[in-house]
Amino acid sequence: MSKGLPKRSEDYSLWYNELVKRADLAENSAVRGCMVIKPYGFSIWEKMQAELDRMFKETGHTNAYFPLFIPKSYLSKEASHVEGFAKECAVVTHYRLKNSDDGKSVIVDPDAKLEEELIVRPTSETVIWSTYKNWVQSYRDLPLLINQWANVVRWEMRTRLFLRTAEFLWQEGHTAHATAEEAVEETVQMMNIYAQFAEEFMALPVVKGIKTESERFAGAVETYCIEAMMQDGKALQAGTSHFLGQNFAKAFDVKFATKEGGLDYVWGTSWGVSTRLMGALIMAHSDDNGLVLPPKLAPFQVVIVPIYKGDEELALVSEKANEIMAELRKVGVSVKFDNRDTHKPGWKFAEYELKGVPVRIAIGPRDLANNTIEIARRDTLTKEQFDLSTQPIAEKISSLLEIIQNDIYNSALSFRNEKTTEVNSWEEFKDVLENKGGFISAHWDGTPETEDKIKELTKATIRCIPIHHEEEEGKCVYSGKPSSKRVLFAKSY
Amino acid sequence: MSKGLPKRSEDYSLWYNELVKRADLAENSAVRGCMVIKPYGFSIWEKMQAELDRMFKETGHTNAYFPLFIPKSYLSKEASHVEGFAKECAVVTHYRLKNSDDGKSVIVDPDAKLEEELIVRPTSETVIWSTYKNWVQSYRDLPLLINQWANVVRWEMRTRLFLRTAEFLWQEGHTAHATAEEAVEETVQMMNIYAQFAEEFMALPVVKGIKTESERFAGAVETYCIEAMMQDGKALQAGTSHFLGQNFAKAFDVKFATKEGGLDYVWGTSWGVSTRLMGALIMAHSDDNGLVLPPKLAPFQVVIVPIYKGDEELALVSEKANEIMAELRKVGVSVKFDNRDTHKPGWKFAEYELKGVPVRIAIGPRDLANNTIEIARRDTLTKEQFDLSTQPIAEKISSLLEIIQNDIYNSALSFRNEKTTEVNSWEEFKDVLENKGGFISAHWDGTPETEDKIKELTKATIRCIPIHHEEEEGKCVYSGKPSSKRVLFAKSY
C-alpha cells in the first residue's frame, strides 16, 4: 500500500475517487466516461445481483434479454421520453471500418452507412414495448413480469466512477398489466423490494417516496424512489420504480382483449437499480482508512493473517488457520487465508482495512501457546483477544458478523436522523442547508415554480415526497402558500 | 399450440427457425440481426451461465467488467486482429440527437461528432490488454485470471437466431502469464472445461482439437476448440480457447519484471463461449415434436398435468400433485404444476413436448384410486404407469432424470460415431460428403492451399486437428502428399 487516503473532512470528493481506485473497485478506461470494474469491485456487484435477482424471482419475475440497439425513430414515439434521453445518446451510424489509403490506420467506411441510425440503449422501454406488442393479445397473456440485466449508455458530460458513468450496468424490470391498480401495486412492490435490499444487505437506511413532476422519469405517470444519505449529508437516489400508465402502450399500440370483451391499452411499469449502488455503498459507510463493507456483501467476510518467523512457525500457525477456516466455511462464512510471504503482517492489515474486510483474524506463536486468536473488526477498528476454549469459533464469528451488519446499519441510521431537520422558515432553510446540510423536511406549495426557484437559489432539490409522512397543515417554506405535507429537500448526487 | 413443426427430414433449417420461435426461446427484433431472448430461452442460458461460472471460479478465475466501447485506433494495434474484425464493426460516431427542423422527428446532431470514433466491442482483447498494461509490473502480479460476461457485436450480413446474430451474449476470459508454458496450460485447461461442460450438462459429445492457421482467431498463435455434430451432420464450433503468445502484450506494451530480474512481455490467452451454445443444444437433441432438453439445463425438469372433470376432482388431484411436488423439491428436482383451467390436458401435453420438459406426470381420478401416476419421458416419447407404493417418487424421478441425461448424451454420441467416416481417397471423400455427410476423418498435407481447394470444391472445411488422434503415416486425400495425422473435415455452421 502506498500513502494514506485523503481525509473525508478535507476533501470528500477526492477521498471517494481515491478510495474507489485504491481499494481496487474500479478505474477510468481510455474511453471517456466508461469505467473498468475491477475484480474486487465486481465481486461486490455480483453479490448485489444475486440477492436482487432472488428477490425478483421470488415475486414472480423472470429474466430475458432485449437488443442493445434501438432504431432512432423508436425513441421519438413517446414524446416526453425522447425529450429526456435524446441529448445523451451514443449513435451508431456505420457498420464497417476499412484501411486508410496510406494503409497505416483504419477509417470508417463511408459505404457502410446505416439506413436508419441506431442508438445504444439508454433504457429499454421503447424496444421492449415494441416487442410486447406481439406478445400481448388477451388478458390471459397478462401480466408480463420481465427483468433484464444489461449495460446501458447515457453520454454524460461530467462523470464519476460508479455515480455517473457513460456506460453502466443495471437491471431494468418492465411489466405489463391489465389494470392501473395492478400496475401501481407492482410499482410500489418494487420500490419496497429495493428498500428492503438497501436496508438488509447494504445496511443503508432509505426514505421511500414519490418524485415531483420535474424529477419524474421521462415517460412515467409517477416515479417512486428510495433516497439515501451519504456521509457528506448529500442525498443519493438509490433506485426508482415507475408507473408508466398507458403511455408506452399507446406509443407502441399494445392493446389487449379484456375479460369483459372490450379492447384496452395495457398498463405498464419499469424499475431499475444500477452500479450506482456501488457508489452509495462506498460513500455511506467507509472511513479515512478505507472501505467498510457490510458482511452480507463483502467478497470475503474474514481474512486470516499469520504472524510468524520462519517455516516452522508458519506451519504451526497454518495448521490452526486451516482448522478455523474449515469451521467457518461449514457455517457459510467466506474466509481467505493470506499466507503470502511477499508481504509483512502490517502491510496486510492496512491492505484489508483499505478493502473493508469485515473481520480480521491474526494468529501468532503466542496465540498457539495460549489457544487464543486476535479478532479485529473493520467497522469499529477494535480488537479483542479471543480464547478459543470459551465458545466455538464458528458461533463467535457468525454472531459477530451479524452484530457488524446491524451496527453499520444503525450507525448510518443515527447519522441520517441527526442530519435530518424539520424547518419552518426560509431563513432556517438556508441556515440549515449551509451550516448543517443533510435532509431538510419542509412544507412546499406543490408548484414547479417554487421548486425551481429553491433549486436556483440553494442547489437543493426535492428528493421526494416521503410516503411515511403524515398529512400536516403548514405553509410553504419559500412562498408561504398553504401546504398539506412536508417534502424532503437536499443537495444530491 | 398452432399446427405442427416442419419436419427435420424435409427442411432442417426451417424446422430449426420455427422451433426456436414456437418454443419461446428467441425471436428477431426490429433491428436487423439482433435477437430478443425470451424468458424460457433465457432461463436455459442462465443455467448454462451458472455452471460455467462455477467452473471458472473453481479454477481460480474472477469476473470483472470492461467497457462496451473501444477507440477505433486500438483495434489496429494488433495487425491480424484488425483484419479479422474491422469489416464487421458497429461504429459510434455521434453522442447526441436533436429535433429535426419540422419538429416531427429526431436527427443526429452534427455538432455532436466524436473526435475519435468508437467501435462496439466485437471481442475485448484490445481494451483489456490496454488495461492490463497498468495492472502488471512484476511477476508477482501474474497470473491475471479474469473473465467477463458481456454482450458483443459483429455486424454479420446473414444472421440466424442464436447461431449467428449481430449482437450476442458470451463470456470472454482473458488471462496473462509469466511463461508461455503456463499460458498454453491455461488454454488447454479452458478447452477441457468447455468440453466437460458440453458433455456433462448439454449432453453434447465434442471433439477437442486445434484449428488450422486459416481458421485461427485473429491475433492468436494457436486456437483450441471443441466441435460438435448437429443432427443434419454439420459441425458446430461450440467453444474456442486461444493461446495469444505475446502478440497483444507487444501491441499494448505489457511488460513485467521477471523473477530473474529481467524484463519480458506477458503471455496471454483468451477463451469464450456464447449464446451460440443455445443453437447447438437445440439442434443436437430436438425432434419433430419440439425441443428435447437435457434435465441438467431444463428450466423445469418435471411438469405435472392434472386430468379432471369439475372442481371436486381437481381438488383431489391437486392434493396428490402437491404431495409429489413437495417430495421432488426436497431432493432438488424442479417441478411445475400446470393447473390452468384455460387449456385442456391434450393441449398442455403438446405444449410441454414442444418446450422439451424432460418428464411429464399426469394424474387423474383413476390414478388416485389405484395409487398410480402416469410418467412420460420427453426424449423417448414413452409412457409408463407408475405404482407409487413400489418406490419413493423422489427416488424414482431423480434416477429417471439421470437416465434421461445419459441417454440423450449416448444417443448423440452414437449418432456422431455413426456419422464419422475415415476416408482414404478423394473419390471416397466426395462420395461420403455428398451421400452421408457428417465428419470425415482424412489425411491432409498441412498446406492452406489444399485446405482452400477442398473448401472451394466441396464447402467442407477442416474443423480441427483432433487432439486424441494418434500419429499415423498416410497421404493427403486431395494432393497425395505425405501426412502424419488425420484431421476432421465437415460442412459447418
| Largest interface summary | A-B, 64 and 64 residues
Number of helices of chain A: 14
Radius of gyration of chain A: 26 Å
CATH class category label of the largest domain in chain A: Alpha Beta
- Please outline the major beta sheet of chain A: 11 strands, mixed
**Adjacency order of strands in the biggest sheet of chain A:** 3-9-10-16-13-12-11-24-27-23-22
Q: Helical percent range of chain A?
A: 25-40%
Q: Detail the poorly predicted runs of chain A.
A: none
Mean pLDDT of chain A: 96
CATH superfamily of the largest domain in chain A: Bira Bifunctional Protein, Domain 2
Supply the number of structural domains of chain A. 3
CATH topology of the largest domain in chain A: BirA Bifunctional Protein, domain 2
CATH architecture of the largest domain in chain A: 2-Layer Sandwich
Which secondary-structure class do the elements of chain A indicate?
Answer: alpha+beta
